[in-house]
Design brief:
By secondary structure, the chain is mainly beta. Helices cover 10% and strands 41% of the residues. The protein is globular, with a radius of gyration of 24 Å.
């Protein structure tokens, strides 16, 4: 399955490092033992055979009630929840309640989806007398549904704190869910425990995906698959067992991207709006692109700007929209005849653009300056001779490599492999067609030598709309038209394959570590 055309030693070194990355993440600024690190990783795999469910929970668990005499959950108005001001107002209301009652583990502040962003989620806030870390477990009576276990990332040294604020997600739609909240010591032992129950609202998506075990001997990596279905504005998150664990609400459209950047997640909520949302679901910023039609693709520079691909009057542009000021400016105008389909940001004002006409990948630099420039072009020199330019300036920009010549990039979704960028050498991934035969590839671009090297090749043969992205040391290849996605190991073997049973617009995998969860 794997066809390596050029091997770079550094790649394998970094793959080995990424395989051990879980332990590094857990031990960074922490004193957790290797045993506890392994335990956390295993528990958060969403594949454990051991389950917390007990029949006695049916009667002993505290029911989360949003009305009536036994009401113990705060309700919030969820109208226009992607308005940053409304999200700030919800935060302020929570702060007032917390200040007034000083919540404890036994009597916490609980709010039902206070920011309106995630269906069937609950905000928790409480204090403990001594420092600890919080673990929550979502379990149901259905034995075919593995437990959903997550350790909360509280941002404190050794992940120990007396103040605990988090959002519980992972409830299975349409089922009675039992939520076990536990406070643990630094050794991982349970200090306090409480069980709640809630009948979760149903969802329009399948609760269980069709799952096939592959022939890889490697375990699937921890994380959640974010699925952006065709013809449906919501975003669905599925676990490693194919169970629906979260429904992210939008306004009218979800686009093709979901990014995690530090302690925030970014995604579209309409054809023209990108939002930045915190780990508890609060909207921290909105970027609205007006006057250019639909956002065709977007990326984030990690600081303030959303860069988007748009088309106006048969001309393509890269726009930069500031979260802070709300202003949009043209960062780059493509020459007439160039049609851009996808972009990937590196930071520092550098971006890679996949184009369907001419078939090529462009590296842009200095997008934050007044004079952005084309650094190189992967494509055919003959195609670029036809594009208007002063003194035929494209000629020196087009690489002589043979690899890009036959690439068909009409439906490509370009991804920059951030953790594997090295000086002047960048690593990217995409799914491309060559003579109607589909291949997922991971390739490097040497900006200094203006050359490319294909590091990993997955010739699946699928000719539909597909994507290929790197996740740790694994590779996620998705067939959007079929609604099928699979996680491959480094040898090109499938760990697991999932099927939605209908078309999707995009699939990506995120860990949410450091944003919501700790380690794993």
């Amino acid at each position: 399955m794997r066809k390596v055309r050029k091997t770079i030693l550094v790649t394998f070194i970094m793959l080995a490092a990424l395989t051990a990355g879980m332990v590094w993440l857990l031990k960074r600024g922490s004193s957790v033992s290797d045993d506890l690190a392994g335990k956390i990783a295993q528990e958060q795999s969403d594949q454990n055979e051991e389950r917390a469910y007990l029949t006695e929970m049916e009667h002993k668990a505290k029911e989360l009630q949003m009305s009536g005499e036994n009401k113990n959950v705060l309700n919030f108005d969820s109208k226009n929840f992607y308005d940053t001001k409304n999200s700030v107002s919800a935060r302020e209301r929570l702060n007032r309640v917390i200040k007034r009652i000083t919540p404890s583990f036994e009597e916490p502040v609980i709010a039902a989806n206070p920011f309106g962003t995630n269906l069937n989620s609950f905000y928790f806030n409480f204090k403990t007398e001594s420092p600890g870390m919080v673990r929550y477990t979502v379990t149901v009576a259905d034995q075919s549904v593995p437990d959903h276990v997550r350790y909360i990332n509280n941002g404190q040294e050794n992940n120990l704190s007396k103040t605990h604020e988090f959002t519980v997600s992972g409830l299975v739609p349409g089922m009675t869910n039992f939520i076990v909240i536990e406070v643990l010591g630094s050794d991982g032992n349970v200090k306090k425990s409480q069980v709640y129950k809630y009948r979760a609202q149903g969802a329009s998506a399948a609760v269980k995906l069709s799952v096939k075990k592959g022939n890889s001997k490697e375990n699937i990596y921890n994380g959640l698959y974010f699925v952006l279905p065709a013809g449906n504005k919501e975003i669905y998150a599925y676990d490693n067992s194919g169970i629906l664990r979260n429904v992210t609400m939008t306004e009218s459209a979800h686009g093709r991207r979901v990014y995690q950047s530090g302690d925030s997640i970014l995604y579209q909520v309409s054809d023209t709006k990108v939002v930045k949302v915190s780990g508890i679901g609060q909207v921290m910023g909105t970027a609205v692109v007006a006057g250019y039609g639909k956002i065709r693709d977007f990326a984030y520079d990690g600081y303030d700007n959303v860069y988007s691909l748009v088309r106006k009057e048969k001309r393509d542009y890269v726009l930069a929209t500031s979260f802070q000021s709300g202003k949009t400016k043209v960062a780059y105008t493509f020459p007439k005849g160039v049609q851009a389909v996808s972009l990937a940001m590196q930071g520092g004002g550098t971006a890679y653009i996949a184009c369907s006409a001419p078939e090529s990948i462009i590296k842009l630099e200095a997008l934050t300056s007044q004079a952005p420039r084309v650094a190189l072009i992967l494509g055919k020199k003959s195609d670029w001779k036809k594009i208007p330019s002063a003194k035929n300036s494209w000629k020196k920009k087009v690489t002589k490599d043979k690899d890009p010549v036959n690439w068909q990039l009409k439906n490509s979704l370009l991804n920059l492999v951030q953790d594997r960028s090295n000086g002047t050498v960048d690593m990217l991934s995409t799914y491309l067609l060559s003579k109607e035969k589909g291949t997922g590839i991971v390739f490097t671009v040497d900006g200094k030598k203006k050359s490319t090297a294909i590091n990993h090749s997955f010739p699946t043969g699928q000719s539909s709309r597909c994507s290929c992205e790197v996740y740790g040391g694994h590779f996620l290849i998705s067939n959007f038209d079929r609604g099928v996605f699979a996680e491959y190991d480094d040898r090109g073997k499938v760990t697991k394959e999932f099927s939605m049973g209908k078309a999707v617009d995009a699939v990506t995998k995120l860990s949410l570590n450091g944003m919501c969860f700790y380690g794993g």
